[in-house]
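Researcher: We're teaching a course module on how sequence relates to structure. For the next exercise, students receive a sequence and then see the predicted structure as tokens, so they can try to spot secondary structure elements on their own. Here is the exercise chain.
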Amino acid sequence: MPEAFAEKQLAGKSALITGGGSGINLAIAKRFASHGANVSLVGRTKEKLDAAAAELRALGAKAGGYAADVRDYDALSAAIASARSDHGLIDIIVCGAAGNFPAPVLGMSANGFKAVVDIDLLGTFNTCRAGFEHLRRPGASIINVSAMQAVSPMAMQAHVCAAKAGVDMLTKCLALEWGSEGVRVNSIAPGAVDDTEGMARLAPTPEIREHYTNMIPLRRFAQKDEVADLALFLASVAAKFITGAVILCDGGQSLTGLGGRLSSAPKRETPKA
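Model: And here is the predicted structure for the students to work with:
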């Protein structure tokens, strides 16, 4: 644990994290739990949530899993209400549920595009909208998990680029609308993160992984714990005057761009006059 966070930053706080059963979001949940927060995990698979919640309880936190699809507003709203009933008013919401698969636009169905936008963007809206009434105000913090694709175009990722750009603009709009209530809203935008499902799909071979690594000024992928450290900072009083920010956690990769396998896009014949 970094020395800067040696003391418990979230003692007595209650956090709710969507997509919290695995990956970056579970790393954030563990970081919050280790700093004294009670944690509610929301996701589609109850068994995965229960296993993750057991890990958090082993860290001394009160934790529970609440099954709901972030695309289903009514089910999500009910899950958030149950979490509030179990753990009290919510101090921190992390909107981390996401979907992704690499595909060119001409190889992607409208349903495929819609699925990613609905999980990433609509799911973030639904979580923020349904969660607002359960927030401890003033003082609550909402953290939306965005991605580098929001600011750097990438071939094979049009759906994610569009969805995450929407997440960042939603973040800024909510910061404007809810600031007077004492609610801070920020985005964190990871780049390549090791040992995640997303990077397993985007960099499935050693050659592609090396390609991405060479585009990162720090010459390595991020660790999940490093993204969790940023989330902890934004959730803590150390960030109490930060809202509407989109903070990259990408090792400088956005400075060079995502590079994006343009050769994978199919060529089209030029129409004859």
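Model: If you want an answer key for the exercise: The longest helix spans residues 110-131. The helical segments are 23-34, 46-58, 73-87, 110-131, 158-178, 197-202, 206-214, 224-235.
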